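User: Let's play a game. I give you a shape written as C-alpha cells, and you guess the letters that built it. Ready? Here's round one.
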C-alpha cells in the first residue's frame, strides 16, 4: 500500500479483516462501506464489493469453513441498525444478506460447531448465530461481560471474551454459561488462540499481551510490547 494512512477516527481505513483458504484477504471499510478482496502475495486488489445497499459499516470480520465472510456492523453513528453481514463470494457478484441483531455489536468469532458468536460491548450481550441457517440461536445479557469486545473459541468449543470495563477475560461453555473469570488485565480488547490451544489477550490500557492456559484458567506468560 503506497498511499497515506487515513487518520480520521470514523474514516475509510480498513477495520474488518479476514483471511480465506487461499491466504487472500477481505478488508472491509467503515465509512465507505466497501469490501476489498486482496491478493495475499502481492497486495493487489482483485475485487471491490460495495455493501452500501445493505447499510453495513464493517467493524470486524471472520471467514467460516465454507468460505463465507461474516462482518460485524455496529450502529455507532446512529444511522443504521446493528447487523451482521453475510457475504458468500462463491457467486459473482457475491451473495449478500444481513442478520439483524437485538443489541449493539462489537466482536465476532467462530467455533467448530457452525456457530458465530457476537459480543455486545456496553450492552453486556452475547449472541450465538447458526451459520448454516443465518439465524440467531439465542442472546444472553451477562453483567460480567460489560465492555465485551474480542471473542474466540477454543477446540473444546468454549467461548472466550475480552471485557474492557471489568478488566477480565471470561470463559463460557457453548451455551453461554460462565465457566471462569480471569482478572488482572488492563482494558483487554482482543483475544486469539494459538496452535497449542493457549488463549492470548492484548490490552489497550497498557503495552502488554498475556497468554492464558485453559487448563488452569490463569495467566502463565506476560510480555510488554514497547511502543504498542
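Assistant: Ready! My guess for every position:
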Amino acid at each position: 500500500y503506497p498511499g497515506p494512512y487515513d487518520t480520521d477516527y470514523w474514516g475509510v481505513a480498513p477495520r474488518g479483516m479476514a483471511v480465506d483458504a487461499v491466504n487472500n484477504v477481505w478488508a472491509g471499510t467503515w465509512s465507505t462501506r466497501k469490501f476489498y478482496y486482496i491478493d495475499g502475495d502481492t497486495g493487489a486488489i482483485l475485487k471491490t464489493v460495495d455493501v452500501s445497499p445493505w447499510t453495513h459499516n464493517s467493524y470486524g470480520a471472520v471467514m467460516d469453513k465454507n468460505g463465507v465472510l461474516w462482518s460485524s456492523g455496529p450502529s455507532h453513528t446512529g444511522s443504521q441498525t446493528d447487523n451482521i453481514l453475510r457475504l458468500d463470494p462463491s457467486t459473482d457478484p457475491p451473495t449478500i444478506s444481513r442478520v439483524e441483531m437485538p443489541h449493539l455489536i462489537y466482536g465476532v468469532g467462530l467455533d467448530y460447531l457452525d456457530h458465530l458468536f457476537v459480543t455486545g460491548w456496553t450492552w453486556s450481550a452475547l449472541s450465538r448465530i447458526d451459520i448454516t441457517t443465518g439465524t440467531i440461536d439465542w442472546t444472553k445479557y451477562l453483567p460480567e461481560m460489560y465492555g465485551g469486545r474480542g471473542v474466540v473459541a477454543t477446540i473444546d468449543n468454549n467461548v472466550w471474551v475480552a471485557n474492557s470495563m471489568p478488566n477480565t477475560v471470561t470463559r463460557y461453555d457453548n451455551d453461554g454459561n460462565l465457566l471462569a473469570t480471569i482478572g488482572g488485565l488492563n482494558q483487554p480488547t482482543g483475544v486469539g488462540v494459538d496452535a497449542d490451544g493457549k488463549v492470548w489477550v492484548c490490552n489497550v490500557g497498557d503495552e502488554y499481551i498475556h497468554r492464558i492456559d485453559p487448563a488452569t484458567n490463569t495467566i502463565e506468560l506476560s510480555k510488554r510490547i514497547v511502543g504498542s
